[in-house]
From TrEMBL:
Gene transcribed to yield this protein: CPK2
Domain of life where this protein originates: Eukaryota
The protein's name in its UniProt record: CPK2 protein
Length: 55
């Protein structure tokens, strides 16, 4: 079985819409699916939504 890709959050405070809860800087997320530039993720470390989609 192939390993899932892990991504590190490195920015975004000045981008996109403001949400109540955001992924914190340096959080690690596991890639569930990548469609174009949109990442469906599951939070591994850090704070923020447990799962979601990010651009």
């Amino acid at each position: 079985m192939a390993e899932k890709a892990v991504w590190e959050v490195i920015g975004g405070k000045d981008k996109g819409k403001e949400y109540k809860e955001r992924l914190s800087f340096a959080s690690l997320v596991e890639q569930v699916e990548l469609v174009g530039k949109r990442l469906h993720y599951k939070l591994l470390t850090g704070s923020g939504p447990e799962s979601g989609k990010a651009a």
